[in-house]
Write a structure and sequence with these properties.
CATH architecture of the largest domain: Up-down Bundle
Oligomer: single chain
Number of strands: 2
Radius of gyration: 25 Å
Order of helices and strands: HHHHHHHHEHEHHHHHH
Helix content: over 70%
Largest sheet: 2 strands, antiparallel
Shape: elongated
Length: 324
């Protein structure tokens, strides 16, 4: 508050009872911001910005549209998983490991969705500018973000396991099994390594949700480097899983129409690759942002879409019995 009062008295002729004058004066705003940056702790700086914006009538805008997107695609994912099991029961085929893997994945996805639902403006203030978010909520927000990252990477791993096991079940041509097993093993190893990096990206671990205030001691590795490497490896695996069946589909004892339909279903994995790339882009914005609560919904949107679309794509090839 002293920074703001000092800026008003030294940089303008505005009266202290005329906030409109001070709010429209760029010199006052610039001097106050510089003073706050050099003199205040991060919590005090956020309080000052929030107070200034309140006095100036500036409201923090937020967008609720991402919640509708999340709910729509999670509903589609659940419907497709249910139809997958209905298709298996229709043909009276016993469940196999690919079915159990997708069941584990969708269960973990429920956790991700629950966390996403908690990260709303009405509950914690996510989507608002960070200075407009109640400071007592910030630690909770970062704990939930950390938990959501764990859910995301575990769920994606089990989706890929399900797809790999499905490919192993239907493609029995020469040379298929070793390539599928290689993909399966790489997926698990990359997931373990990436999970380890995410858990211990900060030392101590709890510094991840304490560091926002600048008052705690700790160290974090380069977040963007971790997310970039993880994103590249994840996308590479997805590309490989999309291309892997292409050489074997037309060796199946299917009619040409069935072969084309099957190829089309697998090619939908391209959508997963697109959402994966967009997630990495949103992570770049987030890791380089000073207004993280404003940019956090983008991670929720693209991470959620990637999970739900991957689940949908993993289930579509299993629905052929229902399409007859």
């Amino acid at each position: 508050l002293s920074c703001l009062l000092n800026a008003v008295t030294t940089q303008s002729n505005c009266s202290l009872t005329d906030p409109a004058c001070a709010c429209s004066n760029q010199a006052v705003q610039g001097t106050a911001a510089l003073c706050v940056a050099h003199s205040c702790t991060i919590p005090d700086a956020l309080t000052t910005v929030n107070l200034t914006n309140t006095l100036c009538g500036i409201k923090s805008e937020h967008d609720r549209g991402y919640i509708i997107v999340i709910y729509t695609f999670v509903a589609l994912a659940f419907i497709l998983v249910a139809l997958r099991f209905i298709a298996r029961m229709t043909k009276r085929n016993p469940l196999w490991w690919d079915d159990y893997s997708i069941l584990v994945s969708i269960t973990i996805t429920i956790g991700f969705t629950a966390i996403s639902n908690s990260l709303q403006v009405d509950t914690l203030g996510v989507g608002l500018d960070i200075w407009a978010v109640p400071q007592e909520n910030l630690q909770t927000i970062f704990i939930l973000l950390w938990s959501a990252l764990m859910c995301y990477i575990t769920s994606r791993c089990f989706v890929r396991i399900s797809i790999s096991l499905f490919l192993m079940r239907i493609f029995r041509v020469s040379g298929a099994r070793p390539l599928i097993l290689l993909t399966l093993v790489l997926n698990i190893l990359i997931t373990i390594a990436f999970t380890f990096c995410l858990i211990f990206q900060c030392t101590p671990v709890h510094y991840f949700w304490h560091r926002w205030d600048g008052l705690h001691e700790g160290f974090c590795i380069d977040q963007w480097a971790v997310f970039l490497v993880g994103g590249i490896l994840s996308t590479t695996l997805d590309v490989f899983l999309v291309l892997l069946p292409a050489r074997w589909i037309f060796q199946l004892q299917f009619s040409l129409a069935k072969k084309i339909t099957t190829a089309g279903m697998f090619s939908l994995g391209i959508i997963v690759i697109v959402t994966s790339v967009m997630r990495v882009v949103s992570l770049y914005t987030f890791t380089h942002s000073e207004n993280v609560t404003k940019d956090l919904p983008k991670i929720v949107i693209w991470g959620g879409l990637e999970l739900y679309v991957a689940t949908i794509c993993a289930c579509l090839p299993s629905l052929r019995p229902l399409m007859k």
